Amino acid sequence: MLPPQPPPAPDSPDFSPLAIGEDLSPLPAYKAAGTAEIGFDGLLAEPLRLREDLASGCGGQTWPAGMVLGRHMLRYHREDLREARILELGAGGGLVGLAVARGCAVGTTPLFVTDQLEMHSLMEHNIALNNLEGKVQAAILNWGEPLPAAVVALKPNVVLAADCVYFEPAFPLLLATLSDLLTLCPEATIYFCFKKRRRADMQFLKKAQKMFKVTEVVDDERPVFCREGLFLYTFQAST
Ligand SMILES: C[S@@+](CC[C@H](N)C(=O)[O-])C[C@H]1O[C@@H](n2cnc3c(N)ncnc32)[C@H](O)[C@@H]1O
User: Fold this and answer.
1) Alpha helix (H) ranges present in 79-230?
2) Which domains does the chain have, with CATH numbers?
3) Is 56 close to ligand 1, i.e. is its CB under 6 Å away?
């Protein structure tokens, strides 16, 4: 008979999402429409004002991975994005892209926040609400479809994607777009943050690991957001 096994050390959680338990987390609770002030825990001197309205779709409210990715970019990429050509996928109301445009030193190339047609007016509204018209542009980018001409012209080398893993039928479409972006600009880095809610979400990650070079990102907050089932990776073209 095997001797009794010691319990796992409480201070050494397994950080691999592929090994996370079977517990399923719910989608965020429904929020009434309104305008929120989001300062990312003081990382933005002037908080973002963000209209949240689920009438246009689920991206009409802020999601947890967007908060984590926003904080990560503001903590670790304030000064290294001057030459970057930045694109956000599945931006919803534009949370992460607007935070980067406001809080990071970015160059003169407009940052693109993209989503489906339904979200376009909300993205435009939030760009104007934060006086970021000169720095941020809203565009429609449907995953799985050919990249829009403006995106091809931009050739983004920094791609932001937060909480885009939540709807299984869209997984192949999202993977196709990520692959197209890395083909367009093979030196690009995709910052990819997601929350594990269902077992299927891990299938997305496994497929991504087969297609791209996937690296877990260093972040002091990682033990905290990991405990909430949130994971932050970079995806790059496989060499
Ligand atoms: C869960 S929301 C995340 C919003 C925002 N990134 C955040 O973290 O708060 C996912 C976003 O992906 C967008 N989306 C879903 N399917 C899409 C598709 N096929 N093409 C483009 N965007 C899509 C939705 O419209 C939605 O805004």
Assistant:
1) 95-103, 117-129, 149-154, 171-184, 199-211, 222-227
2) 53-237 (3.40.50.150)
3) no
